[in-house]
């Protein structure tokens, strides 16, 4: 029986192409993490959508407050509230940008993982191992 991390050997003493323990562990880990990464990505997407909606609502409210302020006969000082709304909008935009950057990094990581998994599967299927591989 072959040790984990080494290639299996046939009865004639020739190496048999097969996944190593390390490759199996890496593939298992990737399959274990994939649902969590996809769920995180969908949640980030949902948060980004809600933040865009919130930003639009803040813009509408700020516009409405300015309109009310202009229409009032009695001088109401709504400027501090408009400024607070605009400050809140700025923070929403900032958080949205952070989420967008995180989602992009997550997408690139997911793409890299899928690419590496495909490369390893192709190597295992073809029986070709890179130089210095413990499977030689």
UniProtKB/TrEMBL annotation:
UniProt subcellular location: Cytoplasmic vesicle, Secretory vesicle, Synaptic vesicle membrane
Any Gene Ontology CC annotation: acrosomal vesicle
GO terms classed as biological process: anterograde synaptic vesicle transport; autophagosome maturation; endosome to lysosome transport; intracellular protein transport; late endosome to lysosome transport; lysosomal lumen acidification; lysosome localization; negative regulation of neuron projection development
Coiled coil feature spans: 85-119
An example molecular function term from Gene Ontology annotations: SNARE binding
Pfam families in alphabetical order: Snapin_Pallidin
Keyword set, alphabetical order: Coiled coil, Cytoplasm, Cytoplasmic vesicle, Membrane, Synapse
Family statement drawn from the similarity comment of this UniProt entry: Belongs to the SNAPIN family.
Role: Component of the BLOC-1 complex, a complex that is required for normal biogenesis of lysosome-related organelles (LRO), such as platelet dense granules and melanosomes. In concert with the AP-3 complex, the BLOC-1 complex is required to target membrane protein cargos into vesicles assembled at cell bodies for delivery into neurites and nerve terminals. The BLOC-1 complex, in association with SNARE proteins, is also proposed to be involved in neurite extension. Plays a role in intracellular vesicle trafficking and synaptic vesicle recycling.
Protein name in UniProt: SNARE-associated protein Snapin
Organism name: Propithecus coquereli
């Amino acid at each position: 029986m072959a040790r984990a991390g080494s290639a299996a050997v046939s009865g004639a003493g020739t190496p048999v192409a097969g996944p190593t323990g390390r490759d199996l562990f890496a593939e298992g880990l990737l399959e274990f993490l994939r649902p969590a990464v996809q769920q995180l990505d969908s949640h980030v997407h949902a948060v980004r959508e809600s933040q865009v909606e919130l930003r639009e609502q803040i813009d509408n409210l700020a516009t409405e407050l300015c309109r009310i302020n202009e229409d009032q006969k009695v001088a109401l000082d709504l400027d501090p509230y408009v400024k607070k709304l605009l400050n809140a909008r700025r923070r929403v935009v900032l958080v949205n940008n952070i989420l967008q950057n995180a989602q992009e990094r997550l997408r690139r990581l997911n793409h890299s993982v899928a690419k590496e998994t495909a490369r390893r599967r192709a190597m295992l299927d073809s029986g070709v191992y890179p130089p210095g591989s413990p499977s030689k």
